Amino acid sequence: MNPSSSSQAVRCLSLRKHFGEGEARIEVLRGVDFQAELGKLTFLVGPSGCGKTTLISVIAGLLDPSAGDLEVLNENHGRMKAQERILFRRRNLGFVFQQYNLLPSLTAAENAAVPLMADGVKRGLAVKKATALLDRLGLADKAASMPRFLSGGQQQRVALARALVHEPRLIICDEPTAALDHKTGESVMGLLASAALSPDRAVVVVTHDNRVFHHAHTIAHMDDGIITQVETPKPALTS
Ligand SMILES: Nc1ncnc2c1ncn2[C@@H]1O[C@H](COP(=O)(O)OP(=O)(O)O)[C@@H](O)[C@H]1O
Ligand SMILES: [Mg+2]
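Above are the sequence and the magnesium ion SMILES. Below is the predicted complex in C-alpha cell form.
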C-alpha cells in the first residue's frame, strides 16, 4: 500500500448522488473529490442545501452513492457487502447527526453507551464509560436524565459522547456547535481536535460556525454539489 493512501481516512473521487428519477430527479453530489487525512480535523463548509449532509451520509455509509469511488479507512465502500458495511460502521465510525437522533426512552448515559453495548460491552461498564465522557462534556449531573428534559445544546453533547465513546477511527459531525454557546462550542471543538490529534484517527466536521474555524487543519469548501476549494490553515502535529 502506498504511504499517501494509508494516511487517508476518507477518499472520495468523482462521487455522485442523486435523489428521485425523471422530472423529480435532483443531482445533489455532482462529482465530489474530497479527502480527510488521519491525524487531522477537516472542516466541510458551504451554504445550506449545497450537499454537505448528503456527502457525509454517503461517507458514513448511511446512503449509497450513485456513482464514483469511496474509500473509508482504506476499505473500498463499493466492494463491501451490506452486512460488512454495518459492522464496519459500528466499529470504526462515530456520527453526530444534525438532529441528534437520541433514543427518547433511554437516559443520556444509556444513549451515549449504545455503541459500546452494540459491540458487546456489558451494560454496567458501557454506562460507566459513557458517564465519564458526559462528565468531560460538562453533563455530569444529566447522565440519568431523559433526552426530553435536556436543552438542545445538552442533547448535542450527549450525541457527541455517543459518537466518541467507542473510540472510533473516523468521527463525523454535522454542525456540532450550532446549538451551543461560544464557551461550550469551544470545549466541544477542543475535544474533537484532541481526538483528531491521534495519528490513527480523523475527524470531519460540517460547520457554518466561523467562531470555531481556528481549530481546522483543513477546510474544504463546498458549493452546489462539488468541492470548490481546499485550504490548509494549520499544519497537523502528525503530518
Ligand atoms: N432524501 C432526499 N430526497 C430528496 N432530496 C434530498 C434528500 N436529501 C437531501 N435532499 C436535497 O439535497 C440538497 C442538499 O441537501 P443537504 O445535503 O441536506 O444540504 P446541506 O447539508 O448542505 O444543507 C437539498 O436540496 C435537499 O433538499
Ligand atoms: Mg445539512
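Strands lie at 8-19, 26-37, 41-45, 67-72, 75-76, 93-96, 170-174, 202-206, 218-223, 226-231.
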